[in-house]
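Structure first, sequence second, as always.
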């Protein structure tokens, strides 16, 4: 009875391990095939025709098969031959010691297929040990990767390798999820002592957020009953999730790139319209400023003329004053001489002469005062003219700075346009080349004969003006959209034909009389 119980337990464990491998490798193969917009439902049965197997090995090796193979095989011999060509291709790419045979895929040999998947995972996952030279290089490299990812987590100790306690308490799984995206969980809220909760929620979050199947029973991991192989396989799926996150080159991402480029092109066109409007406004402002500068210059010239005129009048009055002064001084000298000659005359004559002399002095003083007032007035007017001229010169300088600033803004905007249109042109041309490359490859099993979007010479487009480049890029985008619409209509017609054929078959079955 004890031996039977042990045998049953062993059978259950083997079944669980086989199911874990099936789910894990199905998930891993699908992460590879999605790069060609393809997938499988079961790794144990979906390689039977060899078509998906060939797609897988071409993706893993990065090299297409050289020989001709059946893309829609109907006969057993063609399916087995496809599998044989896939295995031969792996050997040609230095993948040695393959134990699986082409017939194993046709016969659904579970052990051989799962072993083959293990070999592909170890060979192409890109995991190497940090120390090197170990027998289990894949396991050692995987452990080194986990240690490296969690080296900043002071509460995790992996000195005991895969038998470390922090695998059992779920902290390693939670830490790897947190490193992948710290918005998925609150790492600090998990207690190391709560083994079952940590493992259970870790597997659930990884499956929900990272699409990693929970191939390990959380209770087995928390209780220490999980085998090293199961743990290694699960960690390899997490490692692959990190790789796929970094890769990110799927057909969906290419479509998103196309939408982003179209949105950026639309934004640039709107900005171009706004910049043209701003340029027109700046040109109008420049014309107004030039007119103001012209008026200011005319005013300055007029004031300068008035200044010269007043200075000339001042010089004339000063010259007249000097002449009159000389004349009065000469007359005064004569009167003094005459006064000296008449000093002996009568007091009446002397008094008359003195009165005349005083009058002459008074006239001279009045003339001097008038000259001084005139001089002060002219000096004040000249100072006012100089101050007004200084203000006009300062105004001219400010308006010149504004004009220079506007010119710099225009030059900066033109340079920004040139850089932006260069980046947009390169991205759009690369996107169209990618689509021209992808479309024939994705449609090679169909009758669709798509015409690749023609591209003008990029160097000649780069020499065109900003508006001409916008027009060329818009035309290329419209051609690409038209090509995609044609492909979509072909797909819809194909689906309609398939539905029509199936409906015809169904009607024949219904009409067929029962025997």
């Amino acid at each position: 009875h004890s031996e039977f119980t042990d045998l049953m337990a062993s059978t259950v464990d083997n079944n669980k391990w086989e199911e874990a491998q099936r789910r894990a490798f199905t998930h891993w193969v699908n992460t590879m095939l999605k790069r060609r917009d393809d997938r499988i439902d079961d790794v144990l049965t979906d390689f039977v025709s060899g078509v998906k197997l060939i797609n897988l090995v071409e993706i893993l090796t990065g090299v297409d098969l050289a020989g001709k193979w059946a893309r829609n095989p109907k006969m057993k011999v063609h399916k087995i031959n496809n599998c044989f060509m896939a295995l031969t291709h792996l050997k040609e790419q230095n993948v040695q010691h393959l134990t699986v045979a082409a017939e194993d895929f046709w016969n659904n040999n579970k052990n051989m297929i799962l072993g083959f998947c293990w070999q592909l995972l170890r060979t192409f996952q890109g995991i190497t040990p940090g120390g090197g030279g170990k027998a289990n290089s894949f396991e050692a490299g995987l452990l080194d990767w986990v240690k490296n990812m969690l080296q900043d987590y002071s509460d995790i100790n992996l000195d005991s390798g895969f038998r470390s306690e922090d695998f059992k308490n779920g902290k390693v799984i939670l830490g790897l999820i947190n490193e992948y995206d710290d918005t998925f969980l609150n790492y600090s809220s998990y207690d190391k002592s709560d083994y079952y909760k940590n493992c259970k929620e870790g597997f659930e979050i990884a499956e929900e957020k990272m699409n990693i199947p929970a191939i390990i029973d959380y209770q087995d991991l928390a209780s220490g009953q999980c085998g090293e192989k199961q743990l290694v396989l699960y960690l390899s799926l997490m490692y692959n999730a990190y790789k796929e996150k970094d890769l990110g080159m799927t057909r969906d991402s290419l479509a998103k790139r196309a939408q982003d480029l179209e949105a950026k092109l639309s934004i640039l066109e709107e900005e171009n319209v706004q910049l043209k409007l701003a340029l027109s406004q700046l040109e109008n402002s420049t014309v107004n400023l030039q007119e103001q500068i012209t008026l200011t210059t005319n005013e300055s010239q007029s004031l300068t003329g008035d200044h010269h005129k007043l200075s000339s009048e001042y010089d004339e009055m000063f010259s007249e004053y000097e002449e009159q002064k000389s004349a009065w001084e000469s007359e005064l000298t004569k009167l003094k001489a005459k006064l000296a000659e008449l000093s002996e005359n009568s007091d009446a004559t002397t008094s008359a002469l003195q009165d005349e002399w005083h009058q002459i002095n008074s006239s001279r003083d009045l003339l001097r005062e008038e000259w001084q007032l005139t001089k002060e007035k002219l000096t004040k007017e000249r100072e006012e003219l100089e101050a007004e001229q200084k203000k006009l010169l300062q105004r001219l300088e400010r308006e010149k700075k504004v004009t220079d600033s506007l010119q710099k803004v225009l030059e900066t905007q033109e340079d920004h346009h040139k850089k932006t249109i260069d980046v947009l042109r390169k991205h759009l041309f690369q996107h169209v080349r990618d689509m021209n490359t992808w479309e024939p490859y994705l449609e090679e099993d169909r009758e669709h004969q798509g015409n690749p979007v023609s591209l003008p010479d990029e160097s000649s487009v780069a020499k065109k003006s900003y508006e001409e480049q916008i027009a060329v890029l818009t035309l290329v985008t419209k051609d690409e959209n038209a090509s995609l619409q044609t492909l979509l209509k072909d797909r819809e017609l194909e689906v309609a034909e398939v539905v029509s054929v199936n409906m015809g078959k169904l009607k024949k079955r219904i009409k067929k009389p029962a025997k």
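Margin note: Residues 1-7, 131-135 have pLDDT under 50 and may be disordered.
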